[in-house]
Amino acid sequence: MVTSSPPRRVYLDAAANAPLLPEAREALLAAIDDGWADPRRLHREGRRAGLLLDGARETVAALLGARTEEVSFTGGHAQAVHAAALGVLAARHRAGGGMVVSAVEHSAVLAAATRATEVRSIAVDRSGRVDVAAFVAAVRSGGVSLACLQAANGEVGTLQPVAEVIEDARSAGVPLLVDAAASAGHHAPSTAWDLLTADPRAWGGPGGIGVLAVRSGVRWRSPYPEHDGPERVPGSVDVPAALACAVALRVTDDARAEEGPRRAGLVDAIRATAAGVPDTEVLGDPEHRLPHVVTFSSLYVDGEAVVDELDRAGFAVGSGSACTASTLRPSHVLAAMGVLTHGNVRVGLPLRVAAADVTAFRDALPGAIARVRSLLTDPAADSPVTEPVAQPVTAPTTEPVEVDARGLRCPLPLVRLASATRDLAEGTVVRVLSTDPAAGPDLVAWCRARGHALLAQDPLPDPSPGAREPGLVSLVRLGTPLEGRG
Amino acid sequence: MVTSSPPRRVYLDAAANAPLLPEAREALLAAIDDGWADPRRLHREGRRAGLLLDGARETVAALLGARTEEVSFTGGHAQAVHAAALGVLAARHRAGGGMVVSAVEHSAVLAAATRATEVRSIAVDRSGRVDVAAFVAAVRSGGVSLACLQAANGEVGTLQPVAEVIEDARSAGVPLLVDAAASAGHHAPSTAWDLLTADPRAWGGPGGIGVLAVRSGVRWRSPYPEHDGPERVPGSVDVPAALACAVALRVTDDARAEEGPRRAGLVDAIRATAAGVPDTEVLGDPEHRLPHVVTFSSLYVDGEAVVDELDRAGFAVGSGSACTASTLRPSHVLAAMGVLTHGNVRVGLPLRVAAADVTAFRDALPGAIARVRSLLTDPAADSPVTEPVAQPVTAPTTEPVEVDARGLRCPLPLVRLASATRDLAEGTVVRVLSTDPAAGPDLVAWCRARGHALLAQDPLPDPSPGAREPGLVSLVRLGTPLEGRG
Question: What pTM does this model have?
C-alpha cells in the first residue's frame, strides 16, 4: 500500500488576514477561561475580565502610539473605519461635511465617504503614492470635515506620505484619519494621525475585533444610537479577542526589527522572480513599502485562475483587493494606479514565514502563470493565445480594424485584442468594443505596457439594453511590434 | 504547612453572559486552526472557512426557525438590533418612520428607537408583560414603520405575548422585530417574527458576534455605508466565532427538554427563598417566564452592595440591567414595571448548573441581604435602619411631616423615609424631597409594598442650580403601620 503525506500548504495571503499567532491563540484560550465575563459587572468574574481588558487596551495603545483612553475596541476593522469617519462628520458638520481621500483608500473608507457632502478623491502615481500637493490643496480648499490617508496601501504595499500632509491638515483645522489596517505591527508606528484605525487580522490577531483610536481633543461624536457601553461603538467588548489582539500586536511589534528586513529581503526575491515572468509588471513602490507585501500583474491571465493554479500547487495567495474579489468590479486601487486590474496576484508573507517556502513559491510561480496562459483561449479563436499565428505583417490600413470584445469578461478582451493585432503593422488604428468594466483601465495599462497609443476612449454609442455598464469604444494606434504577443 | 483549596466560585449571572460552553470552546479552537481565513478568498484555506461559515449559518437558521439566507452574523447583539431597526426605518420611511416598542425592550432597541420620527412606548403590567391591546392599537394607528417586542425580558424573565400581536402587526403591514437576546436557545423557537435578533453570549456562545435574521420579503435596507461583504453589516465574519455560536446554540437547544424543567424547578426554589426574605419582592411572571432567570428586589438595600456581599461569599449574580449597571440611571425595565429599582438581584442559571450550587446560594442569600441591611445607615441618623427606635406612635398631624432626602443616593432616600416614618400614625401625610432619579419610581414601589398612598409626585419647585435631574417632591399618606420598618 502506498501512503502519501498530506500535500504541503504554504500560506502567503497574510496581508489582510494572517493566521492567529500561537502566542495570541494561547492568550485567547486563557482569556476564554478567565476573562469571558462582562467587564462591566461587579463580581469577581466581571472585574477579572475588566482587568484583562484594561491591560489589552494599554498594550494596544502603547504599541500604536496612542494614550490608553484614546483607544476603543470595535466589532471589526470596517466598523472602526465607519465609526471614525462618520463620527468626525457628525461632530464637524459645520466645517462643511466634505471629505478628502486618496483614491486608494480601503473600501471601508470609501464607503464611509459616500456619507460626506462632497468627496475629493486625490490621485496616486503609478506606484500608488498619493499626490501630496494635490492632497494638501484639497484639504485646504475649505468645506472639508475630514481627510483620510492610509499609512500604507494593503494591496500593493506602498507607504503613504502621511507625515508630509498632517501638519498642513492640522493647520487647516482638518483632522486626519490614518487607516493603518495594512501597516500596524509591521511598520514602525507613527504619531502622525488624529484618528487611527487598525485590523488585528493583519497582524496575526483574531477576527471579530477592530481598533479605533481618537486623539484627545479631536472632535468626534458617536454616529450610532446612544449607548452606555465602555467603547466608542455600541455593545460590549469581546475581552478574549481584545487580549489576543494585544498579544499578537506585541509579538509582531517585538519581531519587527528582525522580521522586517528579513521579509523585505524575501519580498525582493519574489519581485525579481515576478519581474522575470513575461508580460508581468511588479507593482508598488520598490523601496518605500511594507516589508511583507508584494503584488504583480500579468497580461493575458485571469488573477483568479492564477490563484487557483497556485492553490493546486500548494500555495495560497490573494488577487486584487480582498474587499472586491467577490464582485465583478475591478480593484479600485489598481485602476487608480493605472496598472492592469486583471492578472493580479498579491503575496502577503506571514510573520516567521519559512524562507524555503518562499523559495518554493518562486520556483512554482513562472510555470503556474504559463500554464494558465496556455489554457486561456479566446472563445472566438478557439486556440491558445500563445500559439503563434503564421501570417505576414500587413500594412496599416486607413480604416480602423475593429475588435469586438463585447460580452467577454476580463482578461479575455485583452486576449482577443492581442490575438487580433499580433500581426498588424505599426500605426494601424484598432477600434475596440468592450463591455467588461475592467476593460477600460486594462486597455490603458496594456497600451502603456506594449508601447501602443490610446487615442480615445468613449462610451459605446449603442449599449445593449439593460446592461449595467454602458461599455466602451477605445481607439488604439499600434506601436512598434514587440517580440511575441500583441 | 497548611494548604487551602481555592474558594469555590458559583457563577449565577448567566442571563446575559454565560461562560463559553465546553463544546463551543472546542469548536472555536478547531475553527481557529481550520477556519481562520477569509471565506471570500479563493484558495483552499478560504474555501474551508467558507464551508464552516455555511454550516454555522445553516445550524443557527434551523434552530431559530429561519431560512439560511435570512441569517446574518454581526459584530455583536447591539449591532444586530441597530441593523434590524435602522434597516427597516430606512426601507420603510414612507410608512411614517414611527416605532412602537414595549417599555421594557433591551436598551439597544430603545437606543435605535431614538432614530424614529416618533416612538410609542407601550406600558407593561407589574409582571413586565406588555399590554397587548395597547400595543396592537399603537401598531394600527398609522405612521408606524416598525414594531418591536422582545421574546422575553432578560431582566425579569417574563415571556412576551409575541404570538398575540404578530398577526395584527402583519395585517397592519408593520414588520415586527423580535429581540430574542434572552430567550434564544433557552425557550422553544417561534416563527412569530419578521426580524429576529439574538445574542450568542446568552446561550454559552462567544462574544464579538451577534445574530440578525430578516425574513424574506421584509423590506430592509442596510443603514450602513455600502459594503460588499457577505453579511447585512459591513466587514467580514469571524468564522471561528460563528461556528462556536452555532455549536453552543445546538447544545443549548438539545438540552432544553431536560434543562428547561430542571432549571425552572431550581428557579422556583430560589423564588421561594427570596420571597421569604423580609421586604423582598420576587419579580416577573411566576409561570410564563424563562426557565433560568429569576429576579427580586429588596427594600432598604443597594443591589450593588448585595452583589458585592454575595461575591465575597463565592456567588456571582447580577443587579439591575446589565446595560445600565455602569450608569446612575435606574433600570428602565424595573421602573416600567413599577417595582423597586434598587435592591435588585438577578440570577441567571447557566446550562447544567449544579443543583448543589443553587442550594448553597439559597442558603447564603438571606444572610447576605441581612448583613447589607445592617451596614446601611442613614448618614443623618447614623444608626442602622433595622435598629428599633423606642418611641411612642404619635397622632397624625395636619401639617405634612417633611423628610428631606435630597442629595442621598438610592436606596438611602427610602432608608431615611423608613426611619423617619416608622413611628408615625396611620393617616400622617409625609412630604418627601429627593434628587436621586431612582427615588421617584422607588417611592411608588415602596408605597405599594407598605400599604401607603402616594398622593402626588411633582418636580421640586427649587432644584439646586446645575442639577442634572430636577428632583421630586412626593406626598405620601401613611397606611396601617405594619410590623417592623416603615
Answer: 0.88
